[in-house]
Amino acid sequence: MSLKERIDQVEARISKACEASGRSREDINLVAVTKYVSAAETAAVLQAGLTHIGENRVSVAVPKWEALNGQGIWHFIGSLQSKKVKDVIGKFAYIHSLDRMSLAQELEKRAGAAGQVVKAFIQINISGEQSKQGLTPEEAPAFLKDTASLQHLDIVGLMTMAPFEAEPEHTRPVFRGLRELRDELNRMAITRQPMTELSMGMSNDFEVAIEEGATWLRLGSLLVGKGEVS
């Protein structure tokens, strides 16, 4: 299947899920996860009109970003080591995996020095799986209070990863839980401004995520393939 065919197929599925849940397609942002494809193939993704690029390893992403002269809007979606923050500031507009205060402070320090503001999602482990990273829902209020004074960090929303399920419907409680947590945190008025975004939904379950309020989908092989983009 060609890249265009994959994009068209995904778009049709997004539109159908939006229609089923009474949502607008304009409310859904699509991050093309290009971690399995080369810089040249990532360039083809950009040329096809997908502007948001997702990567999860600094050592792989930075050379791609440089090869593409910074084209597109880049999202860091993997676990980020504090020592690697210096390499992502100025390249990645969004961090989807903020999960500890030491990382928040390093992002604040580096972004402040560069005169920039980084948009970040707090990663929440809704499912409670030991293999998943992120704060527990109970830890989120205190963490948001602690980060509220960081002027170069814009907490835009929450992110989670659902367990892989053969039946995508089984992921619904996870996505619903993230939405309900965001709404509860907004009612507490902890952040400088209400959080509007939910980064949730991957290739196996994105339609359920849309139905439960996702605003950012992270799609990899389903959208861009695993190499040899055509």
How many E-type strands?
8
Name of the top-level CATH class: Alpha Beta
| Number of structural domains | 1
Looking at CATH, which topology would you report? TIM Barrel
Order of helices and strands: HEHEHEHEHEHEHEHEH
CATH architecture term: Alpha-Beta Barrel
| Proportion in β-strands | 15-25%
Question: Nutshell version of this structure?
Answer:
The chain is an alpha/beta fold and 230 residues long.
SSE inventory with pairings:
Layout: H1 3-21, E1 29-33, H2 39-47, E2 52-55, H3 58-67, E3 73-76, H4 85-88, E4 92-98, H5 101-114, E5 118-123, H6 140-147, E6 153-159, H7 172-188, E7 197-199, H8 206-211, E8 216-219, H9 221-224
Parallel strand pairs: 1-2, 1-8, 2-3, 3-4, 4-5, 5-6, 6-7
Describe the structure.
Helix content is 40%, strand content 17%. With 230 residues, it is α/β, with parallel strands linked by helices. It is globular. The protein has a single domain (3-224), classed as Alpha-Beta Barrel (TIM Barrel), CATH 3.20.20.10. It is built from nine helices and eight strands.
Structural key phrases:
230 residues; alpha/beta; TIM Barrel; eight-stranded parallel beta sheet; globular
